[in-house]
Amino acid sequence: MTTNQQAFDRARAAIPGGVNSPVRAFGSVGGTPRFFVEATGAYITDVEGRSYVDLVNSWGPAILGHAHPSVIKAVQDAAARGLSFGASTPGETELAELILERVPAVEKVRLVSTGTEATMTAIRLARGFTGRDLLVKFAGHYHGHSDGLLAEAGSGLATMAMPGSAGVTAATAAQTLVLPYNDRDAVTAVFAEHGDRIAAVITEAAAANMGVVTPLPGFTAFLTETAHAHGALLIVDEVLTGFRVGAGGWLGLEAQTPETPGYAPDLVTFGKVVGGGMPLAALGGRADIMDYLAPLGPVYQAGTLSGNPVAVAAGIATLRAADASVYRALDLAAATVSDAASAALTAEGVEHTVQRAGNLFSFAFRSAVPEDYAQVKDQDAFRYPAFFHAMLDAGVSLPPSVFEAWFVSSALDDTAMGRILEALPGAARAAAAA
Ligand code: PMP
């Protein structure tokens, strides 16, 4: 039998750090990353044959749990008809229409392969459409790894405490203005100074790459108004939240909240759930802006595998299966797990907050709910590795960083939930002792 350690050692000889995406290396929690061979429903199994209840779920896509029968069937059927044509297929239109139905702000949509491509293209499009160069983003928000978006980004950069990336030119970095999240004064000030040069503001629909940090009520509406008053666009990044926190994503949830003023983003990006676990993402928005893309308009974007038929089949099957009962199950699972984890930490006297954005949630080891990246970083993060490893030892796989959200699936049945609830008190004890 291959051990996780052997698999990791072998990988490190061939792949930088042994991983194809940095957070997988367990850098901030220590220990040996698990190498997985299969996953079904709520469970994922490593090379040693150990199964874990999975609360990562591929960082979001697997809302139905792993290898959902209707998704697998759709993928197998599509694969049998050919893996890639590099030409148009009816399925692409079907998926585009499903997105349009669920997200009213989206009038037209283009399919790409990764969330990084979706945000990168949205920004190029915003620049092309407005004829301006500057971009505003928020500290702790992650929008993928394109050059202009790595400044003070969340996700792996938060985990590794990297302020940005080497290899990004100073000229590119200078075109991204980074503001503290939820800070209206900072937004007003940046527009007062650079308003006629700002092409767009990009914001996570609800931030979830520095742990979960929700927009304060009305913040995104304020951003929209401010951007529009200066002729700039608003790009809402729903790569993580889209089709996960509800059928209409975070935009859909906010639209149902009476105390939140309505707003219409100009462009919206999607990934993860929209591809059902296959490499597929999308950007969409106002038709007049989207029509600025080639072949109609002057902004170029393309992809050999864009709208790949197998990925499209997975996306359609996932969105079709994600009905109201699935979102009810996700909400219930999120409430059960986050309440139980919080109760276990409280019982051990561990100071913490619970942050929730619909069924996405995370914890911070501090006394007050964080509203921005500076506050998120100001916590007893040293408690997380012990908590994480106690859960892993008890057969529950959590995100290997305190700066990431936990992802539930609708496949969490009573047995899986029981394992999580049993594991939490020991993990809380470990966190308290850290
Ligand atoms: N935007 C957000 C909000 C994300 O969470 C992510 C990935 N976690 C991305 C963009 C980038 O997506 P991808 O990893 O598919 O490039």
From TrEMBL:
Its main location: cytoplasm. Gene3D superfamilies: Aspartate Aminotransferase, domain 1, Type I PLP-dependent aspartate aminotransferase-like (Major domain). One of its GO terms (biological process) is protoporphyrinogen IX biosynthetic process. It catalyses: (S)-4-amino-5-oxopentanoate = 5-aminolevulinate. Keywords: Cytoplasm, Isomerase, Porphyrin biosynthesis, Pyridoxal phosphate. It is an enzyme of class 5 (isomerase). Pathway: Porphyrin-containing compound metabolism; protoporphyrin-IX biosynthesis; 5-aminolevulinate from L-glutamyl-tRNA(Glu): step 2/2. SUPFAM superfamilies: PLP-dependent transferases (SSF53383). One of its GO terms (cellular component) is cytoplasm. It is found in: Cytoplasm. Its cofactor is pyridoxal 5'-phosphate. One of its GO terms (molecular function) is glutamate-1-semialdehyde 2,1-aminomutase activity. It holds the Pfam family Aminotran_3. The modification N6-(pyridoxal phosphate)lysine is found at residue 272. InterPro entries: 4pyrrol_synth_GluAld_NH2Trfase (IPR004639), Aminotrans_3 (IPR005814), PyrdxlP-dep_Trfase (IPR015424), PyrdxlP-dep_Trfase_major (IPR015421), PyrdxlP-dep_Trfase_small (IPR015422). Its EC number is 5.4.3.8. Belongs to the class-III pyridoxal-phosphate-dependent aminotransferase family. HemL subfamily. PANTHER family: GLUTAMATE-1-SEMIALDEHYDE 2,1-AMINOMUTASE (PTHR43713), GLUTAMATE-1-SEMIALDEHYDE 2,1-AMINOMUTASE 1, CHLOROPLASTIC-RELATED (PTHR43713:SF3). Homodimer. NCBIfam families: hemL, PRK00062.1. This is Glutamate-1-semialdehyde 2,1-aminomutase. It comes from Conyzicola lurida. The gene is hemL.
